[in-house]
Amino acid sequence: MTKYGFLGLGIMGRAMASNLVKAGFEVSVWNRTPNKCAPLVEMGARQAGSPREVAATCDITFAMLADPAAATAVVLGPDGVQAGIGDGRGYVDMSTVDAETSAAIETAIRQAGGRFLEAPVSGTKKPAEDGTLIILAAGDQSLYEQALSAFDKMGKLSPYLGETGQAAHMKLVVNMIMGGMMTAFCEGLSLGQKSGLDGQQILDIFMAGALANPMFAGKGAMILQGKYPTSFPLQHMQKDLRLAIALGDKFAQPLSSAAAANETFKRARQLGLSDEDFAAVFKAIDGKR
Amino acid sequence: MTKYGFLGLGIMGRAMASNLVKAGFEVSVWNRTPNKCAPLVEMGARQAGSPREVAATCDITFAMLADPAAATAVVLGPDGVQAGIGDGRGYVDMSTVDAETSAAIETAIRQAGGRFLEAPVSGTKKPAEDGTLIILAAGDQSLYEQALSAFDKMGKLSPYLGETGQAAHMKLVVNMIMGGMMTAFCEGLSLGQKSGLDGQQILDIFMAGALANPMFAGKGAMILQGKYPTSFPLQHMQKDLRLAIALGDKFAQPLSSAAAANETFKRARQLGLSDEDFAAVFKAIDGKR
Amino acid sequence: MTKYGFLGLGIMGRAMASNLVKAGFEVSVWNRTPNKCAPLVEMGARQAGSPREVAATCDITFAMLADPAAATAVVLGPDGVQAGIGDGRGYVDMSTVDAETSAAIETAIRQAGGRFLEAPVSGTKKPAEDGTLIILAAGDQSLYEQALSAFDKMGKLSPYLGETGQAAHMKLVVNMIMGGMMTAFCEGLSLGQKSGLDGQQILDIFMAGALANPMFAGKGAMILQGKYPTSFPLQHMQKDLRLAIALGDKFAQPLSSAAAANETFKRARQLGLSDEDFAAVFKAIDGKR
Amino acid sequence: MTKYGFLGLGIMGRAMASNLVKAGFEVSVWNRTPNKCAPLVEMGARQAGSPREVAATCDITFAMLADPAAATAVVLGPDGVQAGIGDGRGYVDMSTVDAETSAAIETAIRQAGGRFLEAPVSGTKKPAEDGTLIILAAGDQSLYEQALSAFDKMGKLSPYLGETGQAAHMKLVVNMIMGGMMTAFCEGLSLGQKSGLDGQQILDIFMAGALANPMFAGKGAMILQGKYPTSFPLQHMQKDLRLAIALGDKFAQPLSSAAAANETFKRARQLGLSDEDFAAVFKAIDGKR
To answer: By C-alpha distance, which of D12, D23, D10 is closest to D150?
Structure first.
């Protein structure tokens, strides 16, 4: 029977590891603050003393860490994964990290004789608990196939996207479309209201048709209320647009809509909206401040 | 009991009138080719000899005609609605016509002593049959309120949008957003595929998330197959973008994303794609022809 | 010897008519306020009592009037050109009027048996006095050829552009390029200053190179001083961009740069800069207000 | 009397060094291929055996080298400038190199006790011979002031732009404006011709007005002839637009026109025009290929 490890039991990791344990899998867990392991152990998991120990004793070790620094430390630090992995055992990093961090971790794992897969997820606490995350996997394909039965417990969709780096590209593509949809949506809301239409009616009609989507429902309500509690910061959206356009540059791919959206998000930054939710781009478009 | 009239029994009109008859309403019908009235009469409708007769004997007369010419002829032509309407009786034009046609019909109806409402619909055959159209109503508000119980049988949503012309504005706003969403979507698909991602996987991931919407599902499949059977002609989308931008001009409303989309659709026209479905804008973006 | 008429002796017309008289041509002049004719009569011109009289007695009648209303009145009003022209005599309207006015005047002239040429000019008082205007001629080609020796005294360049309306198209093309150059210039100045460069140095370097042009010299100084005395109102530039883009629409000609410039000028209007000089678009770009 | 050195006697360097010698300055020259020194020596220059020797014996050493590799080798290679400079003597690199190369050279010079100035030039063979280059200087200000009398012999304008790196920023700003002007110009030419105007007449009218500039004169002729011999490669213009936009990103500076131009140049790359002159962007706009 395959032995699974899980490093990092924050809000997301704890929910994801729980789904593995509940499925009846044999799971070893580790967390920097050890007492966070207790609930998992109660459910039947085994607690390990270090990332090294997990990597040395499990066939596949999953990691879900807070940021690039934590993701790096767990692999390269003392008693880290690098010291334990080997003999083709697998390491699957599900944290959201930049391409450089991912590449550095991959190199460390492979030099130690392990296999590597990057598998950042889309979705927050609820989908993590429900096992309905979207898992974007890229890297070692044999490891992907071996990890699929575990992915199936944690997510509703877990495509294999190709070599390391392709998961990041997929995220850029999705976020670029999201940014373009948002500026189109805000321009429509602004134009409609200026021409005398009621904002709520515009939303209602929109949501009754073929363009209806959960994002517009949520962000539309924010815009009509004029409050932008941050879920995805505006400056991060602008950064992703910039990176997507830079990716297009490599392939001589014109991206006029994305470029226009990018400039509009930059204007929003110029107006001081960097840390608000990216739906606050509405204010830069509408011009009423 | 309110007496309803219905002029025009094409694919849409027949389905809509049927829903009124099925609801137990008293309905007089007329069609230019009289034998198309037969199925409705069989269901319980009364057949009238002319638009004039319908307008003279019904409290509210609905019309669903093929184009501006037909919509105009039925009102201003011999034995037309204008000759029969009066005493505050209502005329509700549900055809899709331009602002000038709508204004001309409104003038004729009001001069004859009737009340006027423009109420173009969003949705095709199936929603017409199911009574789930979206009805965009604008014009005489008292007539709107009187017509609501009939609208409820034909549509799932029938907001009152204000004075005559506002229904057309709403359509422009919705189509402008749709055009912007489409160029963003195509740019994403094109960029993703060029960077080595699989088109179907991009779609799958998209459809599993907060941006999922029926339009992208349908058009995405068309794009991946490279076939663009025309449902909404590309040149009509470009025309709507142009009109929406012209509307924005009145209010000094910048619409950068819509403008970028408009230019991209114009490039598609330049490439000879005017009569294909508007999703064919993908070809202009992707550059492979 | 060809007899010339000249209607309208404002700042521009007086200078232009003077150049004809100085050249030794036989010139009849008329002005709504008759005493403005005195200086011309002193130089050798003949004063006429009405536009009709001028048109009836001259081979070619030039007109330089303040606005479309005046241009129309002089032709269609009592004792107007229409009543005097005929037998193939020529009428050359050098006023700046819209396409509709120009077409209405052309129709009136042709119905009365005259020939028509539109010939709006580019240039202000000084070039008018120096005989160095740019004259954009369109309409009756035989009249153009007959008028050339007079044009040569008033302007330095007077191309024949084709049928009536083409002079207006030429103006749109030139102004569209001017609008695009201005936004590019302002973006450069703004970016340069934000990255720590000195505005005057940017201008100096610019003016020493292959991109140097009189417009940037003049407008650049305005921008650095932050004062925008109106020479060409911003809202007129935006209107011309809109009309140029609409012209492109006819030919399915994408105009991405013009469209981006148009949206930027609209943003300037949104910020209340409509009546300032069009160089004030800098403020909308720079974001410091 | 100040002693000057000059490294690199290619087409540009030879002309520049000649102007220093002709001015009566004491100049030591060096070239990788020594026999290229002969004409300078004939004029009165002193020939040195190595970059080290020049740097050790001259107060200010100028360098004009072919590319970043040559510029680096002359400083860091055997018998290089680094080994000879010191005691506050000056090194002025007039080659066009990237920011990284410039920074590396600066570090080497300063560590050896020298002062550094970057001073890339704008202009080609003829201005180099005529002493009318534009010299963009940035770095050590005391060295700039000391070098001014030599700059005056080589160029017509040699502003001091601030710390190292600002010369590169100035070039980006100028090229960004140039790129935006070019797309505006091409759109105007394309629109005008499609609406029936004559291309040469558009150019003539343009060149007679306030927008006239040498670049449009030269490139306009290329466009009308449909031939694009490469003077500034299209892909380099697109690269500069990309870098300028990236610079704007740092300051949250929206650059809508530059972004639109960038996408248009990318489309030109997509169409295979990368290596043609950047005026060939006309083909991507006009759509006739």
So the answer is: D23
